[in-house]
Write a structure and sequence with these properties.
With 265 residues, this protein is of the alpha/beta class. The protein is built from 8 helices and 10 strands. A 7-stranded parallel β-sheet has the order 1-10-9-6-2-3-5. Helix 7 links the parallel strand 9 and strand 10. Helix 1 crosses helix 2. It is globular. The structure holds 2-phosphoglycolic acid. 2-phosphoglycolic acid binds next to loops.
Length: 265
Amino acid sequence: MEINILENVQAVAEAGADIVAELVTRKKDATLGLATGGTPIAMYRQLVDLHREGDLSFRDVATFNLDEYIGVSPDNPQSYRAYMQRELFDDIDIDRANTHLPECAEGQDPLEVGPAYEEKIRAAGGIDLQVLGIGRNGHIGFNEPTSSLASHTRIKTLTRETVEANRRYFGENEFQPELAITMGIATIMDAREILLLATGPMKAEAVEKMIEEPVSAMSPASILQMHERVTVLLDRDAASALSHRDYYDWVQEQKRRLLGRRDGS
Ligand code: PGA
């Protein structure tokens, strides 16, 4: 894992957007795996700005989101479809037909959605870059603790803790879903490259377990230790429980030196 500890939320957003933009510039028909939640919003704003400045087009890009609630229709503002339209898709030149979420349409068998989603990802040639947040309990997507580390897209029951953490997004008498369809951990691990963003003190413990403790289904994000190309972008608060901070900073300094030497600067 490449651990990059940055000054604040905005620095994380900018560094994340740079990684996405670099890929989309290099590979115009890249396939992106995308995440919802509070964390990636600042990065999406940054990508919208880059697009508006005229430097970045998503015309040929395809996207696959990590998860979607069951029982919330796509036109409900609480759906992850609505979130993606609002936070990113409506403000860039992406073709909606190329944007995918594991949606369970009215009348559709939720058990069929997972395998069909896996097939769509395969048909698109696999995911080039998967963007992830991390839950306070270490979940990635809605793969809650004890999820199989070999899982694929399927229905998951959210933990009470996750339902509680997400309650802030719902009104007092509003229906809050407790079931979702999520990419599995193996689905995520199949991505060619992974970019995980975490900000704020509430994530510090989950981040420490992901990076510095043994791989365990109790901390699903820890499986990323087994992936070859993972970049973790943290603000100071999310990095505050790490024991080997000096080493991560030292690695980043060495990387800057190496790149400088390569560029002849
Ligand atoms: P958050 O959610 O970005 O809203 O904190 C992250 C997650 O639960 O994966």
